[in-house]
Every structure is written in C-alpha cells, then in structure tokens.
C-alpha cells in the first residue's frame, strides 16, 4: 500500500518532469520554427541555428534529473519504497517546485531569446556567438533553481533515511 | 493570433532583407554612367534582366509580385496584411465603376493586384448593381460612388469618396491587428494623403462640401481644423500645418516643392517602418518588409526612368527615397 506521503513525493517528481518538459517543448518548438525559416532560405546556416535550438531544451533535462533523483531516493525505482509521512511527502513536493515552475517559464523565455537570436544568424551569421550568449543568460535562473531542488531533495532523502 | 506564430515568417523575412538594396548599392545605381550600366548593377544584385532593353516596368512589377508571393507563402493568415492592399480593392472598384459607365467590358485591364477580395466579385457587384456581395467596409462607399457616377455624372467625386473610404478602412484594419506600429503606419499614410488632398483643394479653391469628402478621419490631424483651414486657402492651411507635427512637410508645400513633400512622406514612413527591425516576433517585420520592398521598387523606378531621360546624378539623388536597410 502506497502512503499519502509517497504519493505526494511522486506528484512532486511528476510536476518537475512535466512542467519543465512542457516549457522546453514550447521553447525548442519556437526556435525550431524560426530556424526552419532561415534554413528554407539558406540551408548552410543549419549548424548555427541548431545550437540556438538546443538551448531551451536543458530545462526539460533538469526537471527529468530532479524527478529521477527523487524517485530513486525514495526507492520507487528499486522497488523498495520508503515509508514517508504526509509531511515528508509534502517536503518532497515543495522541493520539486523551484525547477518545475522556473523550468517552465525560463524555457519559454529562453526560446524567445534564442528565436530572436536566429534573426541575428539570418542577417549577420558571424555574430552568432553573441546570439548564443544572450540566450544562455536565461539559463542561469534555471540552473539556480535546479540546484535548489536537487539540494532540497537530497537533504530530505538523507533525513528520511 | 499569437505573435510567436510568426517566428517562421519573420526568420524568412530576415534572410530576404539581405537581398534588399542597401544605401551604398542605391548610390552606385544613381552614379551609374547610363541606363544599361544601372541595369547591369541590378542584375549583379540578383534582379531579373528585363526582356527588352527598356522594359523595366515589367521587371519592377515582377519584383513586387515576388515579394507578395513570398509573404503569401510564409504568413499563416494573409488577411492580417489586408491593411496594406485594401487600397487596391478600392482602386479596382473605381475601375469597374468607370468601365461600367463607359460600356467597357474589360475592367480587368485596369485592375491592380494584389487585392483582399477577388476581382471577379467586384466585377459582379458593379455589373449587377448589387453591392451587398462586397465586404461590409466597401458597400456604403460603393453605393455612394455609383450614385455620383450614374446620377450626378461626376467621376471625380466618386474617386474622392472611394479614396477616403480606402484610407479609413486601412486605419480600421490596422487597429484590428492590435499592433501600435501598424496603427502609426496607417495613420501616417492617411495624414499625408489628407495633406496632399487638402493642399490640392486649397490651390484650386474647392468649397467646403468637396473638402469634407476628401479628408479621412485620422488621429494625428484634426479633421475639422484641416477642413476649415483648407477652405480658407493655401496660406491658412500651411499656417495650420506648421502648428502640427507636420510642420516640416508644410515647409516644402510653402515653397511649392511637392517633389520634396512626396519624398518627405516616403522617408518618414520608412523611418517609422524601421522600428520593426528591432522586433523579433509578430506581423510588424513582415509589413515592414513589404513597405520596404515597395519603397525600393519606387526608388529603382525613379533611377531607371531618370537614366533613360539622361538626368544628372545630383537631380536623381534628390528624388530617391530612404531605404530600410
């Protein structure tokens, strides 16, 4: 029988994976649209726009990583599930929220920045480094919230164990 | 429509902007030794060569068609750009009405493209005198223009009614897009058209009834003040314009230099359109590209025609318009 605590922890893991994944899908999709526009006219720019397209995809990975750390920490992956109180489950759920929410919004924001960068590549391909730097700046906030979520999940796991 | 839905279209437009003539390239055309050299320079930039040595009109027409076809191909809903071409529908209506009165069965010869509605709808509406088949924004103006041509036998008044309706429709279409830049563009086009019409009316001492018909509603020029000052003559009109944001073009009209005034209107529009260079999403960069291409074609037409007439480079320079890139 799975306790309410475990269910809450799994909901947290699911939110981290789903929301940051949704954000990344939107962000990558937006850049892909812009990149396709450039490639239609000039296929030689594929390599340059591909880097920009990849950037908003990292938030999805961060959410995935947080979810794996959590479900592995509470033993869902190994089949040896820990007994969690409701409060412990809520703590896990709270720990997942930073990457879930910031991952979602930062991936979309990064997608917009990278899609704008595609215009730089279209008009001044030699300036693509600047386009990448501009888009990468958004990543900072996703990385910070990934750290918060990972540290919190690890700490809760060590307390629970 | 979500502005990010234009991501693909904007990216393609950005690449195509590279193909627009730059100021330096336009200068080279201006200083070309003769017409043939100017045509060679255009061909080097990727423009098609015309069939016969002097058939540049067809070449310019093809360039305009190509720009519109590109936009049609990339934009999710072409009706978002109706504000740019609605004036062509009103022109086509004018052509159809005049052909109808003159028993000319081929109004198609006078139709211009692109247009928001199929030209056959206009032909059908005029032939059957049933204007309900036209879009709502055209119906009233079409009825008025028809009455003026058929009942009053005054083609000029019919033209005026349709021109004014075209301007007001363009502004209302721009407002529907929700883009402040497009509203400003439509307003500038309308205001400069109003000034031109008011100046011509003041010069020819037109009365209030006529002037009221030629001035379209817009935000940056008060319609009533413009009408009142126009009927009092050129001096009053210019004095009024000098106290508005159109003081600079008023100066050209004061000197009677309508060429400089026309150039100011086009350059000012290009400055406004230039704001779209810094916009990554939305319909604005696409509208800006179409207006920029139009301005480029206008400048090339001025240069080629001047070269054919052996005008000096200095004279041509005064007439060519500012470019987008």
Structural commentary:
The complex is a heterodimer of chains A (161) and B (325). By secondary structure, chain A is an all-alpha fold. Chain A has a single domain (4-160), classed as lithium bound rotor ring of v- atpase (Four Helix Bundle (Hemerythrin (Met), subunit A), Up-down Bundle), CATH 1.20.120.610. Chain A contains five helices and no strands. In chain A, helix 1 runs antiparallel to helix 3 (58-73). Chain A is elongated, with a radius of gyration of 19 Å. With 325 residues, chain B is an all-alpha fold. Chain B has helices at 7-17, 23-30, 35-44, 56-74, 82-101, 119-128, 136-150, 155-177, 180-203, 208-214, 223-230, 234-241, 247-254, 258-273, 284-308, 313-319. The longest helix of chain B is centred in the C-terminal third of the chain and has 25 residues, at 284-308. The A-B interface holds A 30-31, 33-38, 40-42, 112, 115-116, 118-119, 122-123 and B 4, 7-18, 74, 280-281.
Oligomer: heterodimer
Q: Please summarize the sheet with the most strands of chain B.
A: none
Strand content of chain B: under 5%
Beta fraction of chain A = under 5%
Summarize model confidence as the mean pLDDT of chain A: 95
Q: Sketch the major β-sheet of chain A.
A: none
What is the ordering of alpha helices and beta strands of chain A?
HHHHH
SSE layout and pairing:
The complex is a heterodimer of chains A (161) and B (325).
Chain A: H1 4-41, H2 46-54, H3 58-73, H4 86-123, H5 128-160
Helix pairs in contact in A: 1-2, 1-3, 1-4, 2-4, 2-5, 3-4, 3-5, 4-5
Chain B: H1 7-17, H2 23-30, H3 35-44, H4 56-74, H5 82-101, H6 119-128, H7 136-150, H8 155-177, H9 180-203, H10 208-214, H11 223-230, H12 234-241, H13 247-254, H14 258-273, H15 284-308, H16 313-319
Helix pairs in contact in B: 2-3, 4-15, 5-6, 5-7, 5-8, 7-8, 8-9, 9-14, 11-12, 12-13, 13-14
């Amino acid at each position: 029988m799975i306790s309410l605590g475990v269910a809450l922890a799994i909901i947290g893991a699911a939110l981290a994976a789903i929301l940051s994944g949704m954000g990344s899908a939107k962000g990558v999709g937006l850049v892909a649209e812009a990149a396709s526009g450039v490639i239609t006219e000039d296929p030689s720019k594929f390599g340059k726009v591909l880097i920009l397209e990849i950037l908003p995809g990292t938030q999805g990975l961060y959410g995935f990583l947080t979810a794996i750390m959590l479900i592995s920490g509470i033993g869902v992956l190994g089949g040896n599930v820990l007994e969690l109180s409701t409060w412990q489950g809520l703590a896990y759920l709270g720990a997942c929220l930073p990457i879930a929410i910031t991952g979602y919004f930062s991936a979309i924001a990064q997608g917009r920045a990278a899609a704008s960068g595609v215009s730089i590549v279209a008009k001044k391909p030699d300036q693509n480094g600047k386009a990448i730097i501009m888009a990468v700046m958004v990543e900072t906030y996703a990385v910070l919230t990934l750290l918060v979520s990972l540290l919190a999940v690890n700490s809760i796991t060590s307390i629970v164990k | 429509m979500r502005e990010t839905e234009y991501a693909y279209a904007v990216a393609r437009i950005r690449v195509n902007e590279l193909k627009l003539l730059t100021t330096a390239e336009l200068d080279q055309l201006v200083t070309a030794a003769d017409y043939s050299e100017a045509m060679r320079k255009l061909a080097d930039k990727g423009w098609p060569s015309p069939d016969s040595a002097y058939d540049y009109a067809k070449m310019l027409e093809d360039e305009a068609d190509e720009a519109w076809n590109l936009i049609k191909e990339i934009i999710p809903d072409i009706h978002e750009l109706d504000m740019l071409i609605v004036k062509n529908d009103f022109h086509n209506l004018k052509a159809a009405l005049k052909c109808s009165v003159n028993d000319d069965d081929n109004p198609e010869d006078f139709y211009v493209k692109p247009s928001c509605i199929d030209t056959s709808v206009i032909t059908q509406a005029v032939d059957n005198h049933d204007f309900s088949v036209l879009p709502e924004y055209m119906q009233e103006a079409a009825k008025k223009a028809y009455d003026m041509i058929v009942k009053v036998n005054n083609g000029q008044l019919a033209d005026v009614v349709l021109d004014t309706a075209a301007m007001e429709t363009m502004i209302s279409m721009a407002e529907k897009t929700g883009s402040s830049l497009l509203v400003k563009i439509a307003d500038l086009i309308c205001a400069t058209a109003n000034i031109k019409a008011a100046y011509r009316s003041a010069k020819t001492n037109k009365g209030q009834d006529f002037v009221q018909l030629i001035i379209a509603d817009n935000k940056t020029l008060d319609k009533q003040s413009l009408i009142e000052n126009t009927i009092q003559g050129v001096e009053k009109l210019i004095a009024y314009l000098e106290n508005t944001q159109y003081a600079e073009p008023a100066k050209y009209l004061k000197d009677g230099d309508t060429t400089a005034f026309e150039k100011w209107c086009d350059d000012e529009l290009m400055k406004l359109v230039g704001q779209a260079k810094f916009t990554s999403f939305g319909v604005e960069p696409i509208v800006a590209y179409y207006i920029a291409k139009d301005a480029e074609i206008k400048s090339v037409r001025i240069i080629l025609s001047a070269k054919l007439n052996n005008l000096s480079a200095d004279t041509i320079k005064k007439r060519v318009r500012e470019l987008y890139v």
